[in-house]
Amino acid sequence: MKHYPIIALIAGAILLTGCEAKKASHPCLTLTQADAQQMQKSLGKYPVFDKSYAYAQAAADSAIAHGMDVPVPHDAAGGYTHEQHKNNYYAMYYAGILYQVTGEARYATFVRDMLHAYADLYPTLGMHPYKGSPVPGKLFWQTLNESVWLLHTIQAYDCVYETIEPSEREYIEANLLFPVCDFIEKGTQANYDTFNRMHNHATWANAAVGMTGYVTGNRELVDKALYGSAKDGSAGFLKQLNELFSPDGYFTEGAYYLRYAIWPFMLFAQAIEQNEPELKIFERRDGILLKAVNALLQQAYNGTIIRANDALKKTYSTQEIVCAVDIAYWAGRDAELLDIAEQQGSFVLSSAGIATARAIAEGKKKDFCFKSTLFHDGADGDKGGVAIIRRGEGNKQLMLVMKATAHGLSHGHYDKLTLSLYDNGHEILTDYGAARFLNIESKSGGRYTPENDTYAMQTVAHNTLVADQESHFKGDYNTSMQYASRICYADLNDTCSVVAAEDKNAYRDKDISMRRTIAVLQPQGTEYPMTIDIVRATSPSAHTYDLPFHYNGHLINSSFDSRRETCSLRPMAGGYGYEHLWKECEREVESENVWFTILEDDRFYSVTTALGTGKVYLTRSGANDPNMNLRSEPAVIFRKEGLSDYTFASVIEPHGLFDPNLELTKGANAPTEKVEVVYDGEDYTAVQIAIHGRELPVLFIAVNAAEEGKEEHRLSLNGKTYNWTGNYYVQQ
Amino acid sequence: MKHYPIIALIAGAILLTGCEAKKASHPCLTLTQADAQQMQKSLGKYPVFDKSYAYAQAAADSAIAHGMDVPVPHDAAGGYTHEQHKNNYYAMYYAGILYQVTGEARYATFVRDMLHAYADLYPTLGMHPYKGSPVPGKLFWQTLNESVWLLHTIQAYDCVYETIEPSEREYIEANLLFPVCDFIEKGTQANYDTFNRMHNHATWANAAVGMTGYVTGNRELVDKALYGSAKDGSAGFLKQLNELFSPDGYFTEGAYYLRYAIWPFMLFAQAIEQNEPELKIFERRDGILLKAVNALLQQAYNGTIIRANDALKKTYSTQEIVCAVDIAYWAGRDAELLDIAEQQGSFVLSSAGIATARAIAEGKKKDFCFKSTLFHDGADGDKGGVAIIRRGEGNKQLMLVMKATAHGLSHGHYDKLTLSLYDNGHEILTDYGAARFLNIESKSGGRYTPENDTYAMQTVAHNTLVADQESHFKGDYNTSMQYASRICYADLNDTCSVVAAEDKNAYRDKDISMRRTIAVLQPQGTEYPMTIDIVRATSPSAHTYDLPFHYNGHLINSSFDSRRETCSLRPMAGGYGYEHLWKECEREVESENVWFTILEDDRFYSVTTALGTGKVYLTRSGANDPNMNLRSEPAVIFRKEGLSDYTFASVIEPHGLFDPNLELTKGANAPTEKVEVVYDGEDYTAVQIAIHGRELPVLFIAVNAAEEGKEEHRLSLNGKTYNWTGNYYVQQ
């Protein structure tokens, strides 16, 4: 036994005395002996499951063949020691499973020996030499990775537990597992604070520590994991279930981080279900965990999680979503999940995975139903929400997202009432997402780059209103965390899907109220659904209002003189992200409508906006970005100056066909001929849209005040009186 | 009968008197009655063929349902009348086939009535009102489209010929078909010149006129098509077979325009084979047409034609390649073509298509063999060539292209010795291709934009040597047309594929000789093939040498200080395309090697170059491009100043893995540690490459003089003497 610091010894001793819970038979977390046997018998029966198994086997065998490498921690994310410690926990995890399925001793020996090597190393470690995290770790530069390491490692230990001599177990637990738990829970003040926060990093920490408690029979660890360090429910996993999700299953940090958080949520939940079924963990809050998995799957386009907040591009096939879907099926037997599992093409090698694979093979699958949905934010569902509107079927369907939520913790953006459009398999009106090169060491050590704060989070990087070129809440996190937008109403029926949201806080210093009403409808005679987008700003004082449209595609036509700067590019003025936009064109316009058309893949998209006298900018991200941390992406910004109130009314519409193989172009011009705000007041906003080749215009009247959806309304326009009941009137 | 101009009447009358050939039974071009019957019987048997048939049926039925619309020509490409006349020829073409297969009179009537409407209209037309082509048309803005129109229309007429009353046939032939032929052949001086050129526009014209001759029994037209207006073989289709292809089947305009030209080549060849089998058209020049189809298919990556010259992105599934592959199979029964036909997923509805579909159904398919190949350019194969080097299988394979050809007519670029790299399913080192938005009317009427000349064609838009920031031949077409590069040797074996080419003309005014030697090999212990790239410039006088690497991906690391301009961007100086490059970074470097690493998809790519003291630029296309006609694409340019001779030696290599779903990064640093030119002379260039983790460096010695491949060579380096036979020595 090597020497290790006194503190760890004491901590280990204290924890050991906490061993009062009954020792479960092993494995006891995510795999049972019975399911391992079932897995063994099933090999060759479910080809996709076999593929996952073969992957695990190859990974374990390769790790065994390469020999042990447990290096002294040195590198940041993406660097050698970081990646090696990740490789190690995967290797142990897979080898543990392989031992359970095959019974081959070499897998168990590998796990035991590596655990021993870690038990030798861990007590010798100080804090990680790479300083880059507010919550630094020992094996990794941040404690978060240490939790992830433990969550995998404890599953491996669970799998081989019964093969290890008691004295060796004691060595491993006393020198490695308990000290790691102790470090994660309270090794530093930052760790303690994290362990007891309402945040996904806490979920990881709780799950890893709690699962270690189950395996080692250490009730103290389980209680801290479930109820927080104080073991009184003031923190911990169960409180997170109440606080981090809205009643709809929306996760406060948004879909991208739900993808990550769902992993420990579901794994720990499965372990709880196996060890303490009396907690009925999957039934808590009306089945909140299963709702969360559904909400995650719904907040995606073609299997890619939507870009909102600090999102990178991630698909359903990430291991964490595979794991979540399998466990959700295991827990709830929702046959629609089998559709997703089949598309994922891999399974978690656990009781959940084998149950899911078997159910698919037995033909139990139902089509997963993607539908227009409003997800409320906030533990009580009163912190705004995300509306997702879908039209059409399959991977070419149109999907519109309006986000009007609370800030969403540290990964949130200043993006109140922002809008994104997906269509024909592509992002069209884009959310920049995160400025980060995950695990690329040369790019800020794989962490968020500085431009994540200075650009990606700022309001101008989103398709929403910017006043006076300042971000919502002036980009102040603490202020933004205090307020949420409000969903006024949503009626997502298939004929006309309408959602309205407002925000009176983002510019409270300027006393600006913002309200955005979006309607997706398909007027007779048009080929694709159009989106009517009404952005209404009111204030007692005059402001400059900017409305950016970030797009993916190539600008091919516009109503305005879009000639770009030819010989010199300068950034847009000022801060709040504007300094990151090269100003390619600045043009004063003076006509009823401005429009632009882009081409992406084989379809055109036009945005037509009632602007009157104003300015138009063409921009491209990349200014004041010396390290090329930003992608080079274009936007069009519409600007109105010196007005207290202004309502931007736009039509956003796909149209036509560009087929380079057939050399065929159809409908390159937008169906919309003219967008006109025919009435605008505190009570109503009425927008009339003339469509080429149609006599009757489309008329949409949004109610700006009442929200019950049952009130009767009346508005006279051009001598005609419109009467209706509900939040909007539409004449398609 | 409407009035039409006297000239057309006379022309028609003259042509009519030329009717001396025997009238064939109809249809007689690409479909026989027997094959139409076979097609009818086969419906329901070959699902993919059924799909093509269903497409044709839907197109014909929809056209019939919509009614006749034969507008007076007005619009440019992409505009209404342009697209309508295209729709019309497709509608007639499909309806003609449908008539042959179903025997339903309504299809024949539709074709007849539309032909009649065109016969009414055509004589009333002057030149097309949109002026944008040096060879303007009447129905379309350029005569080329008129030829394409006729080529489809004559097939439709052929299909319904026997259903039309003789007097009606006479009306159609006298007022439409013969006048169109006459106009195409000699309606203007430009048309006459085109008809008798060695160029793909002539192929279209010849094919359309010749096929009209067969159908109408007008031998005069056939003879002009085959032998030129003078009917003496000084021009025409047969001469094109001799002059436009190299003995390998390489087409002088490159693969992208071969894709387009192959359509009339193969269709007319099939018509010739049907009508004059004694010409043995498919056996000419040792089967040059079948070789051409093979060369076209080989010059593609994952089914997308390589970007060289004025190329846009086009795939195997274009109708012209479908047609060419089917006819090639029909003519030569090469079972490998069935593999491509199956991937295309559609068939031409002709004798060729049904033969191909049947053969696939009968299981005759063999895998198409993509292989490393050198295609010589020039009618005699002595005008340089294109080398394609492949490694690995399937759609992730690596493919390297070196282009060292003649200019290639009007769509050629000033790109001597340029290199492109494809890997892992993506373009990595890119050729800009064409600056054009095909059929997008708002973009220069769908034609090439001005930036095609000023940027896309210029040398700096390619991955090849630029001297003194001037393009090859100073961008002068007539000069460039006089010279070709020279392939020195090529040895494309799978262990080490080497190709060397030189050009002594591109900078003849500067007396610069350029030689590029490329070797693709996979040293022991590396994961992917590396490319050794030696660019050797020699001159009696001092010059500035630039070597650009245009890339697709995101720059993530570099050996040099790559901090970009933050507050002001200016174009690179001067012309020759440099004015279109924003200068994002200009850096003096002084170290043995410079390198940069990019990330594209899930793989890294590094270029490591022995530069010594020099400059490095980061650029992005889009400067001096007011109309946003260029894509925004990045490049790295290495520069050496004030030297008469310089040899750029680089290693280009894929490496590592970036898996965002697994959050896994491996091998983000290039395997290559150092690239060193250890010897450089008129006789040899020796490059030594140190590889991380390997003791023995890779040594590659290129012979710069001898070319027979049999000579014995000797070179002493660092006290060791290397003896070898052949054009290169390699120690992997």
Task: Describe the protein's architecture and organization.
The structure is a homodimer of 732-residue chains. The longest helix of chain A is centred in the first third of the chain and has 23 residues, at 80-102. In chain A, a hairpin with a 4-residue loop joins strand 10 and strand 11 (512-521). In chain A, strands 8, 9, 10, 11, 12, 13, 14, 15, 16, 17 and 18 form an eleven-stranded antiparallel beta sheet that branches. In chain A, strands 3-4-5-6-7 form a five-stranded antiparallel beta sheet, with no helix packed on it. Chain A has a four-stranded antiparallel beta sheet with strand order 21-22-23-26, with no helix packed on it. Chain A has three domains: 1-243, Chondroitin AC/alginate lyase (Glycosyltransferase), CATH 1.50.10; 250-369, no CATH class; 375-670, Beta-galactosidase, Chain A, domain 5 (Distorted Sandwich). The radius of gyration of chain A is 28 Å and the shape is elongated. Chain A is α+β, with helices and mostly antiparallel strands. The relative contact order of chain A is 0.07. In chain A, 33% of the residues lie in helices and 26% in strands. The model of chain A is unreliable at 1-22 (pLDDT under 50). In chain A, helix 6 (143-160) packs parallel to helix 9 (200-216). Chain A has 18 helices and 26 strands.
Shape category of chain A = elongated
Protein chain pair with the most extensive contact, residues per chain: A-B, 55 and 56 residues
Overall residue-averaged pLDDT value of chain A: 94
* Helix run count of chain A: 18
* Major sheet characteristics of chain A: 11 strands, antiparallel
The share of residues in helices of chain A is 25-40%
